[in-house]
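Recall that a protein's primary structure is simply its ordered list of amino acids. Everything else, from secondary elements to tertiary packing, is in principle encoded there. The following example makes that idea concrete.
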Amino acid sequence: MTSPEAPLTPQSSPALPPAPLSASDERTWAMLAHLSIAANLFTGLLGPVIALGIYLFLKERSRYVAYHAMQSFVFQLIWWVGGGALIAAAWTISGILSAVLIGLLCMPIACALGAIPLAAVVYGVVGAVQCSSGKDFRYWLVGTWVRGTLTG
């Protein structure tokens, strides 16, 4: 004999909202989102993927983590990927023009542009430290835009 009530299966069980993160977990995940930029030093482009993954998996559980993860993702796209493209273009132009004296004069500019990704890593670590200590952190020019986008 079967009972009149059907057993609950994963398909028929009501969806429970995800449990919110504790304040300590929020700070930790926000810090990890900012530190994901360090992954770029070893993998090239994995940092934005990590930040986006943190955003996608935890956006329902914490607005704080969602904001910092998205901010880190956008920052890395602009400064790491965009900076890398700028550096590649500068070295390509310098290499092509090195047959002429002008190219040799452009080499110091290409070297200076090479510091952009390293400066981005340092800025990401600053954001991670501030999030770890419970402070709000905004990347210059990126943070306000991301906050406005996420809050609608």
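DSSP finds seven helices and no strands in the chain. The radius of gyration is 22 Å.
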